[in-house]
């Protein structure tokens, strides 16, 4: 009987439902158990989990230029671009063949002189964000050229100013990552060299890197890029790389990639 009473006292303390114990005979009189004082447990260091302070996150390092690598592609491998640190580099020194055709999407932004804007998906998404930001700043942007196939570029090179046009296979437009931009001010198209002297052009140079775009062919850097100054030609390289490019002395992709 004492063990049964002890069970009634100990049961709740052990987290055991007393009703689950053996049931007493209804005809048996059970003496009231003595009152047992149970000390309330006090909190100890072992009962309160230690709080580990959150580690201070390390600062994000500034973008660093990539180390240069050699273009070792064979003739057949030129169906894909020469890539350095994940960035496609297409130029007169690093060409692609007519077999290179990137995945493209139609980008719903304003265009001028072309039926539609075609870009690689990541570039298209960034371009829409940049156009929206320009609009919030009071500027209207338009795309005058986006993706161009190898065949289209060959036609352009044969019929246009070769000083301003890359030969087929050497144009960034074949990557689907480059756009030629213009602005609209008071209903007038602001393009070409005029863009460089306009508020719209100044906004682009300052803000394009925020959206992963760079002015691909800066002024006075033709010896490095192989292309004369084109204030309208912007190339998507990603936000980190874009900020890295504009932090270099010449503000060229070649210097950033150590390909000059």
Describe the fold and architecture.
It is a single chain. The protein is an alpha+beta fold and 260 residues long. The chain has a domain at 76-256: Muramoyl-pentapeptide Carboxypeptidase, domain 2. The protein has 8 helices and 9 strands. Strands 5, 6, 7, 8 and 9 form a 5-stranded antiparallel beta sheet that branches. Strands 1-2 form a two-stranded antiparallel sheet. A hairpin with a 2-residue loop joins strand 6 and strand 7 (188-190). The longest helix is centred in the middle third of the chain and has 16 residues, at 121-136. It is globular.
The geometry reads as globular
Order of helices and strands: HEEEEHEHEEHHEHEHH
Distance between the ends: 96 Å
Number of strands: 9
Low-confidence stretches: 1-48
Helix content: 25-40%
Q: Characterize the largest beta sheet: strand count, sense, and whether it forms a barrel.
A: 5 strands, antiparallel
Question: What is the CATH topology assignment of the domain at 76-256?
Answer: Muramoyl-pentapeptide Carboxypeptidase, domain 2
On the 0 to 100 scale, the average pLDDT is 82
Which strand-content bin applies to the residues? Answer: 5-15%
> For this structure, what is the CATH class of the domain at 76-256?
Alpha Beta
**Which CATH architecture of the domain at 76-256 would you pick?**
2-Layer Sandwich
Radius of gyration: 35 Å
Oligomer: single chain
What is the number of helices? 8
Q: Which secondary-structure class do the elements indicate?
A: alpha+beta
